[in-house]
Write a structure and sequence with these properties.
Length: about 140
């Protein structure tokens, strides 16, 4: 029996490529940790723009771009402190995991939000009925 092939999100492929480009650049070899940390906003902007261009995660752009950029910066720092040959498969798996976690949490939050909205509507209905009954009772006392 064959193992099922996991579908890799194209945004993960793009972000992996970005990460590898940075790791393999000549300037990276001479970078300091502070230099890499200062790249975080630029990396986030690149990922954010890619999401917009390709129509990915439009309902959660900031969260997705921020989480992926933090992961990229973490991997870059790890590479800086522990220089090895970059492993594209590991980078891709790590970034894919970030997207899975975000998607799972986003769906859970959305479901909770829908449940909370339904509960609020139910409470509003009960409150309207109670107010209506109170108003009827008060009008009887006013007569």
């Amino acid at each position: 029996m064959k193992n099922p092939v996991a579908t890799i999100n194209p945004l993960v492929v793009h972000t992996t490529s970005l990460c590898l480009d940075m790791m393999c650049s000549k300037t990276f070899q001479h970078s300091q940790a502070e230099d890499i940390l200062m790249m975080q906003k630029s990396v986030q902007t690149l990922i954010f723009n890619r999401c917009i261009d390709d129509g990915y995660f439009l309902d959660n752009l900031t969260c997705v771009s921020m989480a992926l950029s933090h992961k990229v910066i973490t991997m870059l720092l790890n590479q800086l402190f522990n220089p090895t040959i970059p492993n594209p498969d590991k980078i891709m798996r790590d970034l894919q995991t970030v997207l899975i976690v975000i998607s799972t949490r986003s769906k859970a939050t959305s479901s909770e939000s829908q449940l909370n909205k339904a509960e609020l509507m139910k409470n509003d209905k009960q409150l309207n009925i109670t107010n209506s009954n109170l108003n009827k009772g008060n009008s009887r006392h006013l007569d």
